[in-house]
Amino acid sequence: MNLLSAGAENCQPLCFRETVVAFLSQYRTILDLPNTIPVFPLAGVLLLPRAQLPLNVFEPRYLAMVDQALAGDRLIGVIQPDGEAAIALEGVASARPSLARVGCAGRISAYAETDDGRIAITLAGLCRFAVAREIGVSTPFRQVVADYAPFAGDLAVGNGEDEVDREALLAALRAYLKANNLTADWKEIGAASIEQLVNSLAMLSPYGPADKQALLEAPALAGRAALLVALTERALSGELGMPTSRLQ
């Protein structure tokens, strides 16, 4: 399912629930998730439950991370660097910038090698986690002890959908599309679940790392939807001081 017809060239998280719920159902409780996971620090990038995140991996340390994940439980945590100073160090292989306190674990659901040595993967979101602590490792990539307990409800499909104001969310989407001369497949949108809309639009949103982190950490689906609507309204009014013509 691809709901938007423009602006999502590098990330297509609106294509997911029908294909990934089946294998994600093996994770019934947080006890089915590993205590330690490798993490992929990415500024301005979100992964949310039951949404898909395509990634092109090319740095040697993260190629090694993908190899290890494929040989094991196929799980990787996506997390943002914490703050502008940490974000500035994101591409420095020898640096260990501080990490945000919350990320999201995902399972590698698709994998392909490219002719130029990159790996194209898709992560299917499982469950958010709080970083209990980072562990010392000999691997070139970082690993953390993940605390899933605060987000155990993420494993329930559609948890909190009844509390979301779908019409307010769709109104904000219509306004955004109109303001930026974009179109959408409204038939697909009408068929999408509320969880699909909220989490996928949050991932696609063009807002900065701090706002993206707030969307990630919203305790419930309704809170994430309300924040997404508020951010969109602020962007359209010019309060965020940012262009609104691109969905990332």
Measured as a percent range, the helix fraction is: 25-40%
Structural class: alpha+beta
Question: Would you tell me which CATH topology of the largest domain applies?
Answer: Archaeosine Trna-guanine Transglycosylase, Chain: A, domain 4
Q: Let me know the CATH homologous superfamily of the largest domain.
A: LON domain-like
Using only C-alpha atoms, the radius of gyration works out to 17 Å
**Sheet with most strands: strand arrangement:** 1-3-4-5-6
Mean pLDDT: 85
- CATH hierarchy, class of the largest domain: Mainly Beta
Shape: globular
Q: How many strands, which pairing sense, and closed or not: the largest β-sheet?
A: 5 strands, mixed, barrel
Task: Give the SSE order as H and E letters.
Answer: HEEHEHEEEHHHHH
Give the domain tally.
2
Low-confidence stretches: 1-18, 242-248
Question: Count of helical segments?
Answer: 8
Distance between the termini: 17 Å
CATH architecture of the largest domain: Roll
Strand fraction equals: 15-25%
Walkthrough of the structure:
The chain folds into 2 domains: 17-155, LON domain-like (Archaeosine Trna-guanine Transglycosylase, Chain: A, domain 4), CATH 2.30.130.40; 161-237. It contains 8 helices and 6 strands. It has helices at 17-24, 60-71, 84-88, 166-179, 186-191, 194-204, 209-217, 221-237; strands at 36-41, 52-57, 75-79, 102-113, 119-135, 143-147. Strands 1-3-4-5-6 form a 5-stranded mixed β-barrel. Mean pLDDT is 85; it is low at 1-18 and 242-248.
